[in-house]
Amino acid sequence: MTTRIAKQKTPGDLLKAVQEKTKVNLNVCYQCKKCSIGCPVADQAESPPSEIIRRLQLGAGDELLQTGLIWTCLSCETCYARCPNQINFAAVVDALKSLAVEKGVADPQGDAPLFNRLFLNAVESYGRAYDLQVIALYKLGTGSLKQDVDKFPAMLKKGKMAILPPSGADKGRIRRIFKKAAQNKGTKA
Amino acid sequence: MKYAYYPGCSAHSTARDMHESCLAVAKALGIELNEIKGWTCCGASAAHQTDRKLAASLASANLLLAKQMGMDMVVNCAACYNRSKVANYEIIHSEEIRQSVADCLGQSYDGSQPVRHFVEILLKDLGLPALRKKIINPLKGLKTASYYGCYLVRPPEATGFDDPENPTILESLIDVMGGENVEWSGKVDCCGGMQNLTRTEITVRRSAAVIGMAQAAGAECIVVACPMCQISLDVRQADMEKLLGKHYRMPVIYITQLLGLALGISPKKLGFDRLMVSPAAVLKTTKAAV
Ligand code: SF4
Ligand code: SF4
Question: Does domain B128-285 have CATH number 1.20.1250.20?
Fold first, then answer.
């Protein structure tokens, strides 16, 4: 597949931002494409992993944040495990995802940032994950209440979903972590 | 054998069966699991997708508690195991992460707390010969596909679990239990679990591919060690059938559930009644009834 890469379509240096966030050296990539061959979602992606690296190297701007792989990536780390140069591409995707969130670029189909936010909010308040609340709020937020309605009664009945919020965690400790992490995010990575 | 035990959030929600069977098996084998008091969420995939430093700090909170107990930390959830191992690895290799973790926790941590998956201690600390002696209800050639998924084996430099492309720890346990391991190539493929709610169709297709491979290899059940894999492969089977028009009916059970059966523990105590796809075929081979 040939992709035409428009240089600096939008001003901004995504490569630098990604390298700052991840400390991954993308210059050592020699385009062997092992990452793309092993990636379970590459076949549906506009640009597979190796091509995203190339686009970054060639000065891609914010248009790269629209690329589907950022939102379909499964964090399976196959790309990283198989890269002969130890390039942690899974971390690159995480960095692109958080840059997309910072710049307000949305997931066109699902809403992973919303899910992550709801999940972490629950952890911040209870110290542990609270699936029922997170799933209900996610479904409300994305208007997908109907999907999976058949599953929850069965899961609740089988005790595979807790009704009450979790208890027993050291909540003070977790709140301190969230507070400090938010402060550190502001400082240069 | 005494360990600090980290159950993980899913132990009280989507993976109660994993937790129940782990405790029952440990008890039967004389392994002392001491639950870490006040443990908190490891951050799961939501934290690392959002902020690496937050992710490392959340996982380290529990590692520090285990360190204070002076025992190896045992985790049965492959996802929590992964996050804890990755936190250790990043803290050792990155000064920046180490500093940030110290700041978040108000305490320094050097990444040295040992983290072990429950199956690792069975293999390495208890040992297969000792385990073999305890098997009173052998599996009678039950055809099993051992499925590792991502979290146990990747990234290999952080988890160091087994051969990352062809792990065999689960197979060696099945072997001792008298089951029959099928040869298949899907054991470290991804089930797509991370997108279970956000991009459900990806999960359904990935998990269907994994089950399809196990089926083609002649497996009667898939054995897992990860709650994300268990939920994707088990709960999503109804969706696979709808989307792809195929029938699977493949029981997806935790290694600790199967081991419990072989040790003669009742299926009820092992959470078999919580599975969505009926495990009747599995129970039949061991003559146990739910
Ligand atoms: S596997 Fe590594 S070196 Fe090969 S193309 Fe991918 S990132 Fe580049
Ligand atoms: S981590 Fe993401 S990009 Fe890498 S192989 Fe897995 S799905 Fe593909």
Answer: no
CATH number, domain B2-118:
1.20.1050.140
Q: Which one, of B114, B83, B118, B113, lies nearest residue B228 by Cα?
A: B83
Q: Which of A89, A92, A93 to mutate to test the pocket of ligand 1 (most atoms within 8 A of CB)?
A: A89
pLDDT band per the 50, 70, 90 thresholds, residue A187: very low
Domain membership of residue A2 (yes or no) is no
User: Distance from CA of residue B63 to its chain's centroid?
Assistant: 18
ipTM of predicted assembly, 2 dp: 0.91
* C-alpha of residue A42 to centroid of ligand 2, in Å: 8
Q: Quick one: DSSP state of residue B123?
A: I
Q: Residues of A with CB below 8 A from B156's CB?
A: 81
Structure token pair of residue B88: 């250790």
What are the pLDDT digits (tens) for B120-136?
Answer: 999 999 999 999 999 99
Are A158 and A88 part of one and the same domain? no
Q: CA of B179, closest CA in chain A: separation in Å?
A: 27
Distance between CA atoms of residues B289 and A43, nearest Å: 44
User: From the CB of A80, is ligand 1 less than 6 Å away?
Assistant: no
Percentage of chain B lying above the pLDDT 70 cut:
99
